[in-house]
């Protein structure tokens, strides 16, 4: 079946521009997560959506970052006024629930480069 | 979520078994042990998880110590495609948890032909 799909796969933009990254989770998955992975670094949690509950935004690094999830399915991560330190691979994952025995399924990420 | 300790790197020969260790001495009774791997230029891939008993699936086996303070991921016959970074992650109990995974540095597995 279809896995988690992210678009675009690569994005190059100039410093100061806004970018939108898209995630299509596995159909029926109620939990959706955004992470980012900077060069040579581990994965860092950004934000988490579970069903219709308010998202957990505790991992967002600044107020330039925001995310929404429409209709409980597709999610968009927006970065405003991009900075060079925002360059990273942004990964999305979905899960059938938030229980600790439920695996997360990842997309292949969007590689964001800020010039 | 409790912390895990893994070796930075390991090497294996193709078609030989690989045992990847993970220590988690502060694990709580309700923590599940999850393993993920990340191949170059790809997102992490779920491998296996368990609570107390050993687990087997098509990708690997998970052996959990009786006191649950350590576990071992077993790849029965390593292939070149198994070269990846392997992450051992503990996930806490449901209810009040963010549910997000906390990734450490993992073990980089190299497979020699």
- Overall mean pLDDT score of chain A? 93
Spell the H/E element sequence of chain B. Answer: EEEEEEEEE
As residue ranges, the low-confidence spans of chain B are: none
Largest sheet of chain A, if any?
6 strands, mixed
Largest sheet of chain B: 5 strands, mixed
The helicity of chain B comes to: under 10%
How many separate helices of chain A? 0
Main interface by residue count: A-B, 26 and 26 residues
Number of strands of chain B: 9
Order of helix and strand elements from N to C terminus of chain A: EEEEEEEEEE
Mean pLDDT of chain B: 91
Q: Tell me the span between the first and last alpha carbons of chain B.
A: 37 Å
Based on Cα principal axes, name the global outline of chain B.
globular
The percent range for strand residues of chain B is: 35-45%
The radius of gyration over CA of chain A amounts to 13 Å
Give a written overview of the molecule.
The complex is a heterodimer of chains A (115) and B (113). In chain A, a hairpin with a 5-residue loop joins β4 (31-37) and β5 (43-50). The N and C termini of chain A lie far apart (37 Å). In chain A, 0% of the residues lie in helices and 46% in strands. In chain A, the strands form 2 sheets. In chain A, strands 2, 4, 5, 8, 9 and 10 form a 6-stranded mixed β-sheet that branches. Chain A has a 4-stranded antiparallel β-sheet with strand order 1-3-7-6, with no helix packed on it. Chain A is mainly β. Chain A is built from no helices and 10 strands. Chain B is an all-beta fold. Chain B contains no helices and 9 strands. Chain B has strands spanning 9-13, 18-23, 32-38, 45-50, 55-56, 61-64, 70-75, 84-91, 107-112. The chains are: A mainly beta (115), B mainly beta (113).
